[in-house]
């Protein structure tokens, strides 16, 4: 049985004290909630990992870094390795976000290296994929998403792939206020699950969690999460306030 997951992605927001306060609020809300139907994860800046880990119950709230380096260690000033992330007590890392691909020129081959290092250090990976408005409109978005997944994930064994969560993020719906319809999101989620089935078989595909990552809010989460192939969300802006984030968490 695959997990339902709602993961926050704070991006470059909050100072450490602000982040600790928000993490405490989320942790307390999760602890007080009855019969949650999903796992909760918060993705925080590197600077926050240790301080946030100290104020959450890691058994109830997972902790993710927002990136890691494509190198194990060495003279790479400013980079943060997967081993460093794991040493903070984090148990997830978000890789391949569209902002990383666009602003920092991350390629499928680079992300393949990051995935390998993350898994080698015991981290679960939330792997992002998705298309631009141009690709959506010219009809090549399915092929593009396939190339992102194949290029960075399909060298893994089935056992390794069990530690991968895929997040579909239509780039045209991130921070724009636009949201893919539930049918549009479900279509792509089903395509992704089909790609995994073709590579690893139906059982692995059925066990793979696929999240929606495009302007998901408390108002539209119930409809999105009702779709058979949408297993939760990777939440940006709405994760920066505990009440809106929990409104999504409780949407299942």
From TrEMBL:
<comment type="similarity">
    <text>Belongs to the triosephosphate isomerase family.</text>
</comment>
<feature type="binding site">
    <location>
        <position position="215"/>
    </location>
    <ligand>
        <name>substrate</name>
    </ligand>
</feature>
<dbReference type="InterPro" id="IPR035990">
    <property type="entry name" value="TIM_sf"/>
</dbReference>
<dbReference type="InterPro" id="IPR022896">
    <property type="entry name" value="TrioseP_Isoase_bac/euk"/>
</dbReference>
<feature type="active site" description="Proton acceptor">
    <location>
        <position position="169"/>
    </location>
</feature>
<keyword id="KW-0312">Gluconeogenesis</keyword>
<comment type="pathway">
    <text>Carbohydrate degradation; glycolysis; D-glyceraldehyde 3-phosphate from glycerone phosphate: step 1/1.</text>
</comment>
<keyword id="KW-0963">Cytoplasm</keyword>
<comment type="pathway">
    <text>Carbohydrate biosynthesis; gluconeogenesis.</text>
</comment>
<dbReference type="GO" id="GO:0046166">
    <property type="term" value="P:glyceraldehyde-3-phosphate biosynthetic process"/>
</dbReference>
<dbReference type="InterPro" id="IPR013785">
    <property type="entry name" value="Aldolase_TIM"/>
</dbReference>
<feature type="active site" description="Electrophile">
    <location>
        <position position="97"/>
    </location>
</feature>
<dbReference type="InterPro" id="IPR000652">
    <property type="entry name" value="Triosephosphate_isomerase"/>
</dbReference>
<comment type="subunit">
    <text>Homodimer.</text>
</comment>
<feature type="binding site">
    <location>
        <position position="175"/>
    </location>
    <ligand>
        <name>substrate</name>
    </ligand>
</feature>
<dbReference type="GO" id="GO:0019563">
    <property type="term" value="P:glycerol catabolic process"/>
</dbReference>
<keyword id="KW-0324">Glycolysis</keyword>
<dbReference type="GO" id="GO:0006096">
    <property type="term" value="P:glycolytic process"/>
</dbReference>
<dbReference type="GO" id="GO:0004807">
    <property type="term" value="F:triose-phosphate isomerase activity"/>
</dbReference>
<protein>
    <recommendedName>
        <fullName>Triosephosphate isomerase</fullName>
        <ecNumber>5.3.1.1</ecNumber>
    </recommendedName>
</protein>
<dbReference type="InterPro" id="IPR020861">
    <property type="entry name" value="Triosephosphate_isomerase_AS"/>
</dbReference>
<comment type="function">
    <text>Involved in the gluconeogenesis. Catalyzes stereospecifically the conversion of dihydroxyacetone phosphate (DHAP) to D-glyceraldehyde-3-phosphate (G3P).</text>
</comment>
<dbReference type="Pfam" id="PF00121">
    <property type="entry name" value="TIM"/>
</dbReference>
<feature type="binding site">
    <location>
        <begin position="236"/>
        <end position="237"/>
    </location>
    <ligand>
        <name>substrate</name>
    </ligand>
</feature>
<keyword id="KW-0413">Isomerase</keyword>
<feature type="binding site">
    <location>
        <begin position="9"/>
        <end position="11"/>
    </location>
    <ligand>
        <name>substrate</name>
    </ligand>
</feature>
<dbReference type="GO" id="GO:0006094">
    <property type="term" value="P:gluconeogenesis"/>
</dbReference>
<dbReference type="GO" id="GO:0005829">
    <property type="term" value="C:cytosol"/>
</dbReference>
């Amino acid at each position: 049985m695959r997990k339902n997951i709602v993961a926050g992605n704070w991006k470059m927001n909050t100072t450490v004290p602000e982040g600790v306060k928000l993490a405490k609020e989320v942790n307390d809300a999760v602890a007080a909630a009855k019969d949650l139907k999903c796992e909760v994860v918060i993705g925080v800046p590197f600077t926050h990992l240790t301080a946030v880990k100290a104020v959450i119950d890691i058994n109830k709230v997972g902790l993710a870094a927002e990136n890691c380096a494509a190198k194990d260690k060495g003279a790479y000033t400013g980079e943060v390795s997967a081993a460093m992330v794991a040493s903070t007590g984090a148990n997830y890392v978000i890789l391949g976000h569209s902002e990383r691909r666009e602003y920092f020129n991350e390629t499928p081959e680079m992300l393949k290296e990051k995935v390998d290092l993350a898994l080698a250090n015991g981290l679960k990976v939330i792997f992002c994929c998705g298309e631009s408005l141009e690709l959506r409109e010219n009809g090549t978005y399915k092929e593009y998403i396939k190339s992102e997944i194949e290029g960075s994930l399909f060298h893994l064994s089935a056992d390794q792939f069990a530690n991968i969560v895929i997040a579909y993020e239509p780039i045209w719906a991130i921070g724009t206020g636009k949201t893919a319809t539930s049918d549009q999101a479900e279509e792509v989620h089903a395509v992704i699950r089909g790609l995994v089935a073709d590579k690893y078989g139906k059982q692995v595909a059925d066990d793979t969690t696929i999240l929606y990552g495009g302007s998901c809010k408390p108002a539209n989460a119930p409809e999105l999460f009702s779709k058979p192939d949408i297993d939760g969300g990777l939440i940006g802006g709405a994760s920066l306030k505990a009440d809106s984030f929990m409104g999504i968490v409780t949407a299942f």
